[in-house]
Design a protein that fits this description.
The protein is an alpha+beta fold and 227 residues long. The protein has a single domain, classed as Umud Fragment, subunit A (Ribbon). It contains four helices and twelve strands, in the order H-H-E-E-E-H-E-E-E-E-E-E-H-E-E-E. Strands 1, 2, 3, 4, 9, 10, 11 and 12 form an eight-stranded antiparallel sheet that branches. A four-stranded antiparallel sheet has the order 7-6-5-8, with no helix packed on it. Strand 6 and strand 7 form a beta hairpin. It is elongated and about 100 Å long. The N terminus is likely disordered.
Length: 227
């Protein structure tokens, strides 16, 4: 069955007159599938680049590994982390943060040493991060005695703490140095934290935990036990 490719059913002279009068083109354009494919590829690549930039500099989700933050956070829970919060302000006491424990590398990216921008787009491999709570701020006089934490000679109220807080390899009392923080796990008897690692530099604190993403039935805030 044949069909009319020109829905206006105009001859060449009529088309020419209309084009000249109204400055329009009545010719039926053929679709350029190659151009459309290239445009879609560009859109997809740009979306991936934007997503990678946001993940590295704005926010990401992390998975809790271990039991050091019980009973606030549990193994395999997924957390949403804000990486922008500490650009213009410092961590506050009680914040749950992601700290860099072990630096990663970009050896899996060919030529990354020649193209440093690749390290800004892709996360490092073999990096290890811990989830801990900010306890001591720069300039604080911190002491641990009798199973409790004292800040500036005052007993710190810690409704989130589980078990007794005891010294480990780092001895107290101490004054928290500038630009560093005392980070502890909530599960005080089962946590590797500043009592072994020492004070943590601000540059190693990657972001603040904002809320819990997974499991779905536990979606929500992570600071309820501060009340």
């Amino acid at each position: 069955m044949e069909y009319n490719k020109d829905p206006l059913n105009l001859d060449k002279i009529q088309k020419q007159k209309l084009e000249e009068k109204y400055g329009i083109n009545l010719r039926i354009a053929k679709p350029n599938y190659l151009k459309e494919f290239v445009n879609w590829c560009i859109v997809i690549v740009m979306a991936i680049i934007i997503a990678l930039i946001l993940r590295n500099f704005a926010f990401e989700w992390v998975v809790v590994r271990g039991h050091s933050m019980e009973d606030s956070l549990f193994n395999n829970q997924v957390l949403f982390v804000n990486k922008l919060g500490y650009i213009y302000s410092e961590p506050k006491r009680g914040d749950i943060v992601i700290m860099q424990y072990k630096k990663g590398n970009w050896n899996y990216l060919p030529y990354s040493e020649y193209f440093p921008f690749l390290t800004l787009l892709f996360p490092p491999k073999n990096e290890e991060n811990y989830v801990k709570r900010v306890i001591g701020l720069p300039g604080d006089h911190v002491d641990i005695r009798g199973g409790h934490v004292y800040i500036n000679e005052l007993l710190l109220n810690e409704p989130y703490a589980k078990g007794f807080t005891n010294e480990k390899s780092v001895q107290f009392p101490q004054v928290v140095p500038p630009d560093t923080f005392l980070l502890l796990g909530d599960n005080r008897e089962n946590s590797e934290d500043s009592r072994q690692l020492g004070f943590i530099e601000l540059e190693r604190i990657k972001g603040k935990v904002m809320f819990r993403l997974y499991p779905i039935n536990e979606f929500g805030g992570v600071y309820d036990n501060l009340e």
